Give the backbone structure.
Amino acid sequence: METLLHIDITYEQILSLVRQMPVQQKIKLSKELEKESISEILTKLLTVFHTEELDLETIDREIEIVRQQIYDRQKHESHI
């Protein structure tokens, strides 16, 4: 039997919890958030550029651009 639990939690509380996590769990969480972000960005791109001319190569190129931006941002943040 599955039980659902709803908890009201603020952004600050989440951030505090994340800061207490071990590095490996933070990395895992970061990768999950990255997947979610990429999916959301792609959906927006497809909506904005709804056309028959949008091909897989264009989508792949955009994915790589976003991944690189995320990687660069994470790298920059880890040096702060």
